[in-house]
Design brief:
Radius of gyration: 18 Å
Number of helices: 1
Largest sheet: 4 strands, antiparallel
Strand order of the largest sheet: 2-3-1-4
Order of helices and strands: EHEEE
Strand content: 25-35%
Distance between the termini: 43 Å
């Protein structure tokens, strides 16, 4: 079965939140968040953190005073081009 489509949501918290605290801020279950992605600091000085959530579980539109924003796309990050063969990279192979 394919992985569910996921999107990013940002949350605002006074301190780095746990996954459970992030879920509570969004009003969703912990199971709706990607545990492997976790809670990623975006701008800790401003209390801004990101989590990845199943697209079908995104909470209703955030009102101006809500502690979250999104959804934002969560593109798959992959290397560009073809991988180099270590022996042809020009580095020392010793």
């Amino acid at each position: 079965m394919a992985d569910p489509k996921r999107v990013l949501m940002t949350i605002v918290a006074d301190k780095p939140p746990s996954l459970a605290e992030a879920a509570a801020l969004l009003g969703v279950a912990v199971a709706d968040l990607n545990e492997a992605f976790g809670v990623v600091p975006v701008d800790p000085a401003q209390g801004l953190y990101a989590v990845e959530i199943d697209a079908g579980k995104v909470p209703a539109q955030s009102a101006g005073g809500e502690p979250y924003r999104g959804p934002f796309s969560s593109p798959r990050i992959v290397p560009l081009g073809t991988p180099r063969n270590k022996s042809s990279s020009g580095g020392d192979s010793t």
